[in-house]
Amino acid sequence: MITQLTQAQLDQIKIYTNKWNDLSTTTTPANRPQAEDAIRLAYKLANCKQPDQIIWFDSPMALCDYRTTLDTLNLRFKLFTMMQSKAKQAIAKLFTVDQYNTIRVPGWSLFQAASDTFQWDVAIAINNKTSHMFSGQMVSPRDDSYSMCQYDYCINMLGLTELSQFVGGLIAVAEHAGWWCPTETVCLVAERPCAVRYDANNAIHSDNSCAIEYPDGWGIYMWRGVAVPEHVILRPHEITPDEIMSEWNAEVARIMLDRYGQDNFIRNGGFTIQQSDDYGDLYRIEFEEHGDEPIVAVHVKDPSTDREYFLYVPPHILTAHEGVAWTFGYDNPSDYNPLKET
Q1: Phi, then psi, of 153 in degrees rounded to 5
Q2: Cβ burial, residue 4 (10 Å; 0-12/13-18/19+)
Q3: How close are the terminal C-alpha atoms of the chain, in Å?
Q4: Cα–Cα distance list, 286 to 263, 267, 268, 281, 295 (Å)
Q5: Cα R_g (the chain), whole angstroms
Q6: Torsions phi, psi of 292, nearest 5?
Q7: Do 199 and 133 contact (CB within 8 A), yes or no?
Q8: How far apart (Å, rounded) are the C-alpha atoms in residues 187 and 180?
Q9: What is the CB-side half-sphere exposure of residue 222 using CA atoms within 13 A?
Q10: DSSP labels for 79-118?
């Protein structure tokens, strides 16, 4: 029973989480020979018959599409879930609860920050296309990297070598391949992404292509870390006010609005003027679908140039006069009564 970790062992937690973060988001091509050896080992350790074939695909979506054509028993539970359960039981015998949390809790927070968004959005895209039919049968880098990080650490830093008889194959698959789907007759394996693009703030992002791209061209479109439909990135002119209003995800709706343009949104959305006075027309647009903050804007006309434009004001503004006054720094609209604006 381990009751206390040394400082050297504690220092290694971050090193191991960094290693598995990097593996979870790597664009290095899969090492196919080593991955296939690892798959065979995983089958062997779970006492499963070796697969007749190991078939590779250039994206997890292509893998999932092919899986729909097969009539064969999925082995994810037996190879992955049951073997992990045995490994966790072995770990529980080694640690007190407090010491296990010393590894688990900091390791999770470090790992989660870098890897979760990346693999979760791939999983969502697959779920959306397949109606969740087969994505739950696959093992994703998000599924296994955090757990494999713990097992890798315990084996190599704490000497818990008996874990290898349960998860040695799983660790090696995670080190050398991307998504995979074990079945009774064949094992399906996907390549890793060939490109992951980031913005200046290190959020996954691309304004003109897939942000996460696989060798066959399939990928995920993302704007500053948020997954969005393809046309939002490649064809923003196809966005419509109705689409923005009906989008249930507030983050995606805001991105659509940003790409479409707030002025165009108000002009083309067919929205009703809430209030009018000598200072302009006040629009208030509520996002009932996702409960985001409303857009409140005053439509004004420059009397010297006849140019029309919108002044965006806080949600508490109730009149055009109040909104225009606010833009000039007046909290009380009665204090703003110019004889002429220039």
Answers
A1: -65, -45
A2: exposed
A3: 80
A4: 16, 15, 16, 16, 7
A5: 27
A6: -75, 165
A7: no
A8: 7
A9: 26
A10: IIIHHHHHHHHHHHHHB-HHHHHHHHHHHHHHHHHHHHHH
pLDDT in tens, the chain (342 residues): 666 778 888 888 888 888 887 888 889 999 999 999 999 999 999 999 999 999 999 998 899 889 888 888 999 999 988 998 998 888 877 766 666 666 554 544 444 544 455 556 666 666 665 544 555 678 877 666 778 888 898 899 888 899 999 999 999 999 999 999 999 999 999 999 999 999 998 888 999 999 999 999 998 899 998 889 999 999 999 999 999 999 988 899 999 999 999 999 999 988 989 999 999 999 999 887 777 788 999 999 887 788 899 999 999 999 999 999 999 999 999 889 886 565
Give the E-state strand segments of the chain in sequence order. Answer: 53-57, 180-182, 186-190, 195-196, 212-213, 219-220, 222-223, 226-227, 275-277, 280-287, 292-301, 308-313
Query: In DSSP terms, which residues pair with 275 in a beta bridge?
Result: 282
The answer to whether 89 and 162 have CB atoms below 8 angstroms apart is no
Is the CB of residue 181 less than 8 Å from the CB of residue 67? yes
Region for 278 from its dihedrals, namely left if φ exceeds 0, alpha if ψ lies in -120 to 50, beta otherwise: alpha
- Helix or strand holding residue 51 (H, E): none
CA 143 to chain centre: 13
Angle of helix 60-67 versus helix 97-130 axis, rounded to 10:
70
State the sign of the Cα–Cα–Cα–Cα dihedral 74, 78, 83, 85.
Answer: positive
The residues spanned by each domain of the chain are 7-194, 271-335
